[in-house]
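Exercise 7. Predict the joint structure of the components listed below.
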Amino acid sequence: MWRELWTLAVRAACGPRRLCTFQRSRVPALNSGTTIFALSSGQGRCGIAVIRTSGPASGYALGILTAPRDLPPARKASLRLLSDPRSGEPLDRALVLWFPGPQSFTGEDCVEFHVHGGPAVVSGVLQALGSVPGLRPAEAGEFTRRAFAHGKLNLTEVEGLADLIHAETEAQRRQALRQLDGELGHLCRGWAETLTKALAHVEAYIDFGEDDNLEEGVLEQVDSEVRALEVALQTHLGDARRGQRLRSGAHVVVTGPPNAGKSSLVNLLSRKPVSIVSPEPGTTRDVLETPVDLAGFPVLLSDTAGLREGIGPVEQEGVRRAQERLEQADLILAMLDACDLASPSSRNFLDMVVAPTGAQNPSKSSQRLLLVLNKSDLLPSGSPSLIPDLPPYLLLSCLTGEGLDSLLEMLRKELVAVCGDPSTGPPLLTRARHQHHLQGCLNALSHYKESKDLALAAEALRVARGHLTRLTGGGGTEEILDIIFQDFCVGK
Amino acid sequence: SLGQMSCNPSFGGIGKGHLMREVDALDGLCSRICDQSGIHYKVLNRRKGPAVWGLRAQIDRKLYKQNMQKEILNTPLLTVQEGAVEDLILTEPEPAHPGKCRARGVVLADGSAIYAESVILTTGTFLRGMVVIGLEMHPAGRLGDQPSIGLAQTLEKLGFAVGRLKTGTPPRIAKDSINFSILNKQTPDNPSLPFSFLNETVWIKPEDQLPCYLTHTNPRVDEIVLENLHLNSHVKETTRGPRYCPSIESKVLRFPNRIHQVWLEPEGMDSDLIYPQGLSVTLPAELQEKMITCIRGLEKAKMIQPGYGVQYDYLDPRHISPSLETHLVQRLFLAGQINGTTGYEEAAAQGVIAGINASLRVSRKPPFVLSRTEGYIGVLIDDLTTLGTSEPYRMFTSRVEFRLSLRPDNADSRLTFRGYKEAGCVSQQRYERASWMKSSLEEGISVLKSIEFSSSKWKKLIPQAPISTSRSLPVSALDVLKYEEVDMELLAQAVPDPLRKYTQCRELADRLKIEATYESVLVFQLQQIEEVQRDEALQLPHDLDYLSVKDVSLSHEVREKLHLIRPRTIGAASRIPGVTPAAIVNLLRFVKTTQQSRAAVDELPKTDQYLRDTDRLQEREL
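Solution:
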């Protein structure tokens, strides 16, 4: 994942490969790198969202979104109507700022769009930008890295860059896990597999076509697979509501040993009976999720099965799902029974879940954790028995509601931290990324069909696969070679 | 044994032909010698696009050896001495270079010493080489040649990680015992395409060249292999062999119940031997003969020499830098199979780079390094030095990211100028030829762009081309040349003035056509190449001690990797598996800090040296 995010930016497909036919005052210089865009303000509830672009096609993109008006004066806020370049549909009336390089944050040509903060507007503008030739969604830390490369940051400023990239890649990793968990992920993986195999077969035909045992018909089979893939992608893109909606909001996962009161907390926070509550350990067996508004932030709250071993297959599956969901969490609410801290299951939970997350440098790990000790009403002395190395905790009684206010206050602080980082909660950007790469893949596949030269056709497949693997991970040359050697007996 | 082709009697192929063109662009010898020694020239992949054409030829072993010896022994200032090398002479290391000692020469088997400022080791399959036939194994680098044991021990003692690889060769068959009349005949290309940019033709006319013949294995061959696995120790060994050039045994084992091709290739113009390509085998000799005679056309074949397997040592190529100098021993360069590669062409590619750098090192000039964006040689060396290899490494076009840019036709414009200016390895004649070609191409392309007509006029001029007349914009001659049906000859008939002159030279006309074919994609590929080169321009200090350096925050695992591989640039570092983007940024910051402090000491205003390099790269015309 690390390597990919870094090298794919330069190796794999970078944006749609269409020539700009739009003749305006500033057609991007084609030899000076790609142009990136991202939502650079935080998630959460906000009045104004800021979307930034950087790169040679920035002015071109601004021109296209604000057509028919000319570029605004440099470094001055101007009010413009933004419209979708494909449909002409108006998106928002927004403040735009045009920073021609090198006098800009990154040193490249930059544009800032200050749009109204609703999800529909932000998502519309991001998707519109994604459809402009030469633009692609930014990779983790890419704006900062470009600023660094152009000498726009001093050394102290750069010190934070590695941490930032670490946090962003972590956040994107979790996000990718979420996306891939579900129907859409399943589809993407299937497509990527088909394409990898198709490419491997074309590559085999190029590198070993003169060899034996490459059956006739390899290319015909690839052609028909590509046609089927095209249809699938078109259908998917044609109906944006089809398939699974990406789950939005910060992911908060409640976890803990059985019978700690996780489901009670979920019901308390969501103010409705989402989960069945019973005194019997192991009542919750699947992941139950509910969208809630916590302190003004959109949150997807998940109740999970209690973590324990030596149980039946159904509950075991529940535990597996709980752990999977934990991986994807932005914020973990770790719950323990305050009266039961010394029990093996509690100790084990503290060691396996709380300690590893808590031990990480908070600035480096963007996954956060709050330790909540429930059932304070049952504590005889009002405070839990002393346990060595117990991390900071909050006392709560789901029964009486005591401690709920301070929990909500802590949650608010944590969510500010989680959602303040624009990369963590970007279902909007994620959707734009998806659409961008799926469309890019589709465009490349049409080039495949047009190409008579096999090297050109293979290049189109490489680009198409590059787009899909950016959504699913993987995508090295070795993977292709492995398939070639598995499927064919080559060697002369 | 100078110029001895120890395995197949052929050069080139898909991917390998690319390497030969690049070796030639740097004035390496093998391509020119092949143009004088081939007996069957054929370009593979002709129908698949010029970016993946594979120049290939059957070579006369005897002629190759003769011509190679003539060339080498007549090279001015070059002394050639033959002898088995037993050991290295080592001395104190030079300061400011990594490495715990420095190579000063070699000791021969007779005890005599040869001193040198740089040493290049190209051990082939000789390092602790073992030849295997059936259950018999004996030490040898090649059938009948002594292996090199002392040298292997020295290298191991110096701390090189040693691995083991295997390869094999087929039996040789008497030509007059084969019934060619019932087999498929393959004739050479007419005209022959030479390997070298300096040659317009090869030494021999197509009609004088020899044919190859094709036959196939059959179920009986499978049976013999399967019945006798217990007599075949080479196949059972765990040593890694190549996945793509497998012995007949591994073909039968991995893909049972199929028939496999066997090419019957001549070993030379007047040789009475035939090389059955595809029949590499290590069965006991009498079983090999039995297997051969159940193949169609070979029913009465006489086996002159049995096939055999070779197992040999190689050193983990992550121990060498992209200039092919080892990290451990200064001025020691490694090339060829010792680095885990297989094939003449892969060896030649490393040979030319090692030779150039061994000489630059002596004259204290910066190393000559090719990147992945410049050539197949760059991809080959970058893969080896950053990823290592666990099987014999062979070049494929699918390993190359920028395949459409790195073509056989344009190797000269990619490499000859760098070779001339930076390495001094290119002859004046070649330099002038490449310069003429480059300016003619540029001129030709701009002329083609400047000729614009309406699509309906083009349709009338060149009815063969399926030009759509619905386009209202004028169409340039370059766009018309992109059609598969159109070549320069056809265009020049339509627009004789000014295009006629670009058809005078066949190579120029062909190259213009190729440039047009890929033009629209290359614009974007160039953009990606520049992004990669930006990272390649960020150099890491070559004497950095990754294990102990304190001012940079790196995990232990990353430190170990960087210490072993010693990437030369940020780009190379980012390709090492396990080196994270965060680590890369920390490295960048460290490099920048050290550069600033060094600059302060030298009182030189070079604070942004590498950034300026980046800008220069961006400006550079490719």
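Discussion. Chain A touches chain B through 58 residues (CB under 8 Å).
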